[in-house]
């Protein structure tokens, strides 16, 4: 009757961890889904988690091209993962992309609470896609007078 239905059989080390507050029972070791792709705020809140909500928004770079991809979740295709996302690729100026994101997320009543987060993520992704000027910096070889010196 050692392994009865209601009893729990743990080893000595697991009992020690449970008593000392370490191991899988402690809150710090729980899985915290912060870095999932549909989490715009990267916070562990029910409002921002992409796995917990039917309507999610994802903004990411388009790969090698300097494009931004806006993906929203379809609410009717939850059991078909291949058809779950609606993706739109944007490669215009920043203000046009910002207007499209704000219209898609906020104005169409899709997820108006995520409008500011989507715009912040868009600006961060767009800033990361900008190509920095390569090569050595050119020196100014002109004779520049510094005021106060002779």
From TrEMBL:
Alphabetical GO CC annotations of the entry are: ribonucleoprotein complex; ribosome
Query: Which keywords does this chain's UniProt record carry?
Result: Ribonucleoprotein, Ribosomal protein
GO BP field:
translation
Q: What range(s) does the Ribosomal eL28/Mak16 domain occupy?
A: 34-128
MF terms (GO), sorted A to Z? structural constituent of ribosome
InterPro entries given for it? Ribosomal_eL28, Ribosomal_eL28/Mak16
Chain spans, region Disordered:
1-30, 131-150
Q: Report the protein name in the record.
A: Ribosomal eL28/Mak16 domain-containing protein
**Belongs to which family?**
Belongs to the eukaryotic ribosomal protein eL28 family.
The family database entries (Gene3D superfamilies) matched by this protein are listed as:
3.30.390.110
Instruction: Give start-end positions of Basic residues composition bias.
Output: 135-150
């Amino acid at each position: 009757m050692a392994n009865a239905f209601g009893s729990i059989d743990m080893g000595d080390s697991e009992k020690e961890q449970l008593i000392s507050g370490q191991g899988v029972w402690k809150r710090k070791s729980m899985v915290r889904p912060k870095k999932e792709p549909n989490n715009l705020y990267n916070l562990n809140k029910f409002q921002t988690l992409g796995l917990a909500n039917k309507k999610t928004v994802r903004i990411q770079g388009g790969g090698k091209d300097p494009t931004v991809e806006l993906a929203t979740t379809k609410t009717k295709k939850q059991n078909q993962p291949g058809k779950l996302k609606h993706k739109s690729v944007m490669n215009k100026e920043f203000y046009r992309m910002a207007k499209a994101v704000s219209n898609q997320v906020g104005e169409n009543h899709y997820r108006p609470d995520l409008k500011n987060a989507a715009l912040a993520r868009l600006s961060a992704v767009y800033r990361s896609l900008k190509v920095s000027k390569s090569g050595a910096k050119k020196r100014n070889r002109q004779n520049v007078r510094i005021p106060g010196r002779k």
